[in-house]
Amino acid sequence: MTEHITVLLKEAVKALEVQAGGIYIDCTLGSGGHAESILKAGGQYIGIDADPKAVRKAETRLERYGGKTLINRNFSHLSSICSELEVTCADGVLFDLGMSSVQLEAEGRGFSFQRNEPLDMRFSPTQDVTAADIVNNYPESDLADVIYEYGEERRSRVIARRIVQNRPIRTSGHLAEVVQSAVGRKGKIHPATKTFQALRIAVNDELGSLKAGLDQAIELLCEDGRIAIISFHSLEDRIVKEKLRREAAACVCPKGAPICVCNHNPRLKLMPRKAIKPTEQEVLQNPRSRSARMRVAQKI
Ligand SMILES: C[S@@+](CC[C@H](N)C(=O)[O-])C[C@H]1O[C@@H](n2cnc3c(N)ncnc32)[C@H](O)[C@@H]1O
What we know:
42% of the residues lie in helices and 14% in strands. It is α/β, with parallel strands linked by helices. It folds into 2 domains: 9-102 and 206-299, 3-Layer(aba) Sandwich (Rossmann fold); 128-203, Orthogonal Bundle (DNA polymerase, domain 1), CATH 1.10.150. A 7-stranded mixed beta sheet has the order 3-2-1-4-5-7-6, with helices on both faces. Helix 3 links the parallel strand 2 and strand 3 (68-71). Helix 1 (9-16) packs across helix 2 (33-40), helix 7 (140-151) packs across helix 8 (156-165) and helix 11 runs parallel beside helix 12 (234-248). It is globular. S-adenosylmethionine is lined by residues 4, 6, 28, 30-34, 48-51, 54, 74-76, 96, 98-100, 123, 209.
């Protein structure tokens, strides 16, 4: 059975400075790995996941711990979730972005180009649009834009054209073949990697949710509260880096402005300034952790 190996586990719990009785919001509960460590350290835990199956599975794993609330929602609704729970501020907020290994490999949702499954890719079955809808219904130029923007794929136009020529494409295996036939294969990385990433990001509006979730999380932090965000590709990391830097800056006037007129009040301090990466040993034990970057900040 596929299990998800939690990335940067010790580092994330250390970064959040989990204290007994403090309130910690984990916006990406997943298989409950970070959750379990936070609960063991005595934190009051609120775990959110858009995927109802992930929440059910984590409920079983975390059964023996008190002091937890698990919620099946999108973290882009973080403020309303907290007001419903009457939580006014949090001592720590964690995001461990993207999908879990369980979603990738075990649930038949078409996230992996190494499997032949229906092209779904939704985190939550309540979402309207599936990957098959985008692949089969978007105009060719819009499809190319999605693949370029969210996959950072230079060959997006060639891939989009080949996809349109091969419609309908209903499975991940068929899509992987079509992409490979458009761009060929060299090296170890599968040529459909970026196209699959792009579709997953588009289906789940991952970058929009991240921006909304980050804004609300920073607002919700108590004084001295910590936020830690683990991202897995440059599009996510860029959003996180820019947001945290802006919130930590003394001045946000345009570059080259002769004097500061923005009256910006920094709300965060970066801890440390640079992203934290997994150790070589973690990457050896869990190769999926290799692209992880964690950025941490404290509310001031
Ligand atoms: C990498 S996994 C988290 C793993 C978890 N930290 C652990 O230790 O097991 C990411 C999880 O975040 C969820 N997720 C992704 N985007 C989300 C969003 N916008 N709102 C809520 N959950 C989301 C996914 O469904 C997935 O279960």
